[in-house]
Design goal:
230 residues, mainly alpha
């Protein structure tokens, strides 16, 4: 019975890790559809959003079932609770990525091209790449219980925020009406990317809690490391 319980825990965590990898792929594809004006890809991504909802809800259901039947305590209970927490954030990130895909559909004209100022398109592309890197690191930290990597996630998120602010700086210099219309729609996509990265940082905090058992360990360890650097 105990071996069966351990197998259940492994399967639940593996599913959460796999979903996180799929969210990374979704973000990359949604950003590509947006920048390249690929309405066909974007439409497909929007249609596939329900799959993430179903998988994350299935994780939550399995967590509840395992708690009800196996009565886990201590670290095992923390693991199960954390997996349900992370699955919730995965569902949010998938929704945000699907919103980017929806924007790609809206800003693509009949010829399948986009009226996009190159500077802003490049910023969104860079931002998408950085967010995907944050997600990849988050997935690795979760899969390997890597505390050091989990603690590096906020530093990886900082350039994403910087690009979001730079987007508005570039937007203020536009004068072409078509470019302004495209950029006004693109603002929300840049915001969605920034929010996806923020959600990954929230998952990172939960990974630190999962490893250390301390809810405030994220801030405390960061402060300790800063003290050592001085």
């Amino acid at each position: 019975m105990r071996e069966q319980f351990k197998q259940q825990l492994t399967e639940i965590k593996d599913e959460v890790v796999d979903i996180l990898g799929n969210v990374e792929t979704l973000v990359r594809q949604a950003t590509t559809a947006l920048i390249e004006g690929d309405s066909e890809l974007a439409t497909q991504l929007v249609a596939n959003d329900d799959e993430f909802d179903q998988r994350t809800m299935a994780v939550e259901d399995r967590v509840l079932e395992t708690i009800a039947t196996q009565f886990p305590v201590a670290r095992d209970l923390r693991l199960l609770h954390s997996m349900a927490f992370i699955a919730m954030y995965e569902e949010r990130m998938a929704d945000l990525a699907a919103n980017i895909a929806k924007t790609a559909v809206r800003v693509t004209d009949k010829e399948g091209t986009m009226r996009a100022p190159q500077a802003l398109a490049d910023l969104v592309h860079q931002q998408g790449d950085l967010v995907a890197q944050v997600l990849a690191a988050t997935r690795e930290a979760l899969a390997n219980n890597d505390l050091e990597l989990a603690l590096k996630l906020p530093d990886m998120d900082a350039p994403v925020d910087a690009l979001y602010k730079q987007f508005f700086h570039e937007l203020a210099h536009l004068s072409d009406e078509d470019e302004i219309e495209w950029a006004s729609r693109m603002v929300m996509s840049s915001r969605y990317l920034e929010r996806i990265s923020d959600n990954a940082i929230d998952i990172g905090e939960r990974i630190v809690f999962l490893i250390t058992g301390e809810r405030d360990a994220y801030d405390e360890i960061e402060l300790s490391e800063q003290g050592e650097r001085k």
